[in-house]
Amino acid sequence: MTHALIVIDVQNDFCPGGALAVAGGDEIVTGINALMADFAAVILTQDWHPAGHSSFASSHPGKAPFEMADMHYGPQVLWPDHCVQGTPGAAFRDGLETTRADAIIRKGMNAAIDSYSAFFENDHETPTGLDGYLRTRGISALTMVGLATDFCVNFSAVDAARLGYDVSVRRDLCRAIDLDGSLDAALAGMCEAGVTLV
């Protein structure tokens, strides 16, 4: 069984000082780097939004960040503008060992739909290409770390489990937004999907 480390969205905008900062988001970098040597493959994901993305509150007059909107694919949290393509906020956090990455999967590039999961956009149908990459590499087990536990890590882990991967999430190397109880809901959902929480 070939085992890959999936490092999710360890980017400046999700770390302290960023546009959508996750408390303690920068604290996990050293631990993630130390873990990389234990895996046959390391894949990084990167939120990579065009300016004016439909998930940004600024694209919805009268709406504020963290309010909800109904999209053609379902309910969507409206976020502060973040991880805009080519900006310093979209860059990987300083110190993250990006040279160790076998592949980088960028997501959220379609202006009309958000993409939390490393595997699918938020319509749960449009693939990012990660599944095909892993299968052609013969990878069947995944350990996930990164930001944020209750959104992109959660959606990625649940999708991976549903696709048949053996999935674990290292909670010590993740940090959460915890928006209105979203962390507890995410942990319960991951367990229900068969994800191992370490």
From TrEMBL:
Q: Write out the pathway annotation from the protein's UniProt entry.
A: Cofactor biosynthesis; nicotinate biosynthesis; nicotinate from nicotinamide: step 1/1
* Keyword match Metal-binding: yes
Q: Where is the signal peptide?
A: none
Task: Provide the GO MF annotations for this entry.
Answer: metal ion binding; nicotinamidase activity
| Pfam families the UniProt entry points to | Isochorismatase
Question: What is the E.C. number?
Answer: 3.5.1.19
**In its keyword annotation, does this UniProt entry include Flavoprotein?**
no
**Domain Isochorismatase-like: where?**
4-196
Gene3D superfamilies annotated for this entry? Isochorismatase-like
Q: Which GO biological process annotations does it have?
A: pyridine nucleotide biosynthetic process
Q: Which domain of life is it from?
A: Bacteria
List UniProt keywords, sorted A-Z.
Answer: Hydrolase, Metal-binding, Pyridine nucleotide biosynthesis
Family assignment from sequence similarity: Belongs to the isochorismatase family.
Q: What is this protein called?
A: Nicotinamidase
**Native source species:** Roseovarius gaetbuli
